[in-house]
Amino acid sequence: MKFRYSEYSIEQLHQEIGKLKEQAQKAEQLGNVSEVQVCERKMQVALAYTMSPDDFKKEEIYQLKMETGYKFKISYVNGVFAWGYRIDLLDKESEDIEALPISLLGKKVS
């Protein structure tokens, strides 16, 4: 049994995403909000491993899929995580650097 998404095949990643989606739906039915959030985060990380980090470039700005109106400016990419700064609705860049799975990045803005 594999424990690191980096060791999974694409098929195994898709199976894992499906399993996590089911777990999230069950948790939602039971009203377990924190378990839903954990499953969603795991799904985003697993999904990131199905994508190519080479498609995301330093200094480029992307829309955030889960947060309409917010953007993300990449400082660097490490594995399937983009490190950078969130940009709010007023185009103000956050002061703190953060890491997001590349699966959360939408269309390129610039």
UniProtKB/TrEMBL annotation:
InterPro entries: YfhH, YfhH-like. SUPFAM superfamilies: Hypothetical protein YfhH. This is Transcriptional regulator. It comes from Oceanobacillus sojae.
